Amino acid sequence: MLDFDDAQTRLANGAPLPRATTETPLREAAGLVLARDLTATLDLPPADNSAMDGYALRHADYRPGATLPIDQVVYAGQAPGPLAPGHAARLFTGSLMPPGADTVVMQEDTRVVGDRLEITQAPRAGQHVRRRGEDTAAGSPLLPAGTRIGPAQIALLASQGIASVVVHPAVRVGILTTGDELVAPGQPREAHQIYNSNGAMMAALVEGMGARATQVLHAQDTETALRSAFQKLAQDCDMIVSIGGVSVGDKDLVKPVLESLGAELDLWRVRMKPGKPVAMAHIDGKPVVCLPGNPVSAFAVFTVLVSPLLRRMQGRRDLFPPVSRQRLRTDSPRQDSREEFLRVRLAIDDGGVAGLQPFDRQGSGVVSSLPWATGLARIPAGQTVRDGEMVAYYDFQHWLS
Ligand code: AMP
Ligand code: MG
């Protein structure tokens, strides 16, 4: 049996880095990954400006109790004139500083009498001024290649006037569910059938990470059906995830079918629970990952084993999201001969302390545990973990993004 960490490393290295690039409008870039380092070309802000609604002056002109004539009003978006010595200018948030002015007083700290300004709080020299380039200086690194683009990155790029970016095209993932017992949601179901949850689940997992589930197929447990499904996916997709049919049962035909397609198959029994049978193969250099059929196992194995591989194919640099240490809350000691990933919920107790609450039924068929859980707690193989002890926590928000 293969150790969990070895399996994770092997899978994460199971594909070459992406080479294809495409230029995409910024508006459509969310979820995609930058293919080039980007450097700032603009100072931001482009000129000194006011951080407050208020008045600009030379700090040296301030005297307690004295009043300054107001010689101009500058709205955001207007070009100011120079500030005459001994004068003040009316400004608003984002108004450019008139040449000569160095300090802003907020209007709450002033009184206006006629056209003269009285300052009621002694200002600090330079206060409330946003300096040219203090946010981003022209020439400084903006975002490195490998960054996944989200709303924050889009804000930064737009602030530089960037309207399109060079990205890696979204990874096209083909999903194949298997099993004679399955019927698609929305279809009539016979008593001996169950609904297919893995297809829709896996598509959502893949798309939540910024890839595209371009094909979601289902095959009956026959070699012919499996073979033609794998062939189609290998043609149309960059990566294949199959679910089910990879164990040692009579109808577990994925392995022989992949071999008949010339794929070199690494079948691992990974020392993890849930999950044990996991396989990786390549067809025409494209990775094929085969996951166990139980939806809970498929979900957990995708989270901790497959997501790093997908990140690599996307061109992302951080393949392994953070794993934090959290306190496990458990009624009875936990231990297993395999690495166990408990479905847990991170909850804050009355004292404000975070703890991991395991779902009460940890069977790998218990799908209702998935929407309840916020992540997976890792119980190391062969160790006993008692209530209050610290364990590694894989948060779905990090691992599935
Ligand atoms: P398998 O790995 O094919 O032996 O499947 C293991 C278990 O997961 C069996 O109980 C299957 O019925 C169930 N299963 C497999 N595929 C799916 C699916 N797509 N949706 C729901 N349950 C599934
Ligand atoms: Mg099956």
From TrEMBL:
Pfam families: MoCF_biosynth, MoeA_C, MoeA_N. Its cofactor is Mg(2+). It catalyses: adenylyl-molybdopterin + molybdate = Mo-molybdopterin + AMP + H(+). Residues 1-23, 123-144 are annotated as: Disordered. Coiled coil: none annotated. Keywords: Magnesium, Metal-binding, Molybdenum, Molybdenum cofactor biosynthesis, Transferase. It is an enzyme of class 2 (transferase). The keyword Transferase applies. SMART domains: MoCF_biosynth. The keyword Methyltransferase does not apply. Pathway: Cofactor biosynthesis; molybdopterin biosynthesis. Gene3D superfamilies: MoaB/Mog-like domain (3.40.980.10), MoeA, C-terminal, domain IV (2.40.340.10), Molybdopterin biosynthesis moea protein, domain 2 (3.90.105.10), Molybdopterin biosynthesis moea protein, domain 3 (2.170.190.11). Residues 174-312 form the MoaB/Mog domain. It comes from the Bacteria. Its EC number is 2.10.1.1. Belongs to the MoeA family. Catalyzes the insertion of molybdate into adenylated molybdopterin with the concomitant release of AMP. This is Molybdopterin molybdenumtransferase. It comes from Bordetella bronchialis.
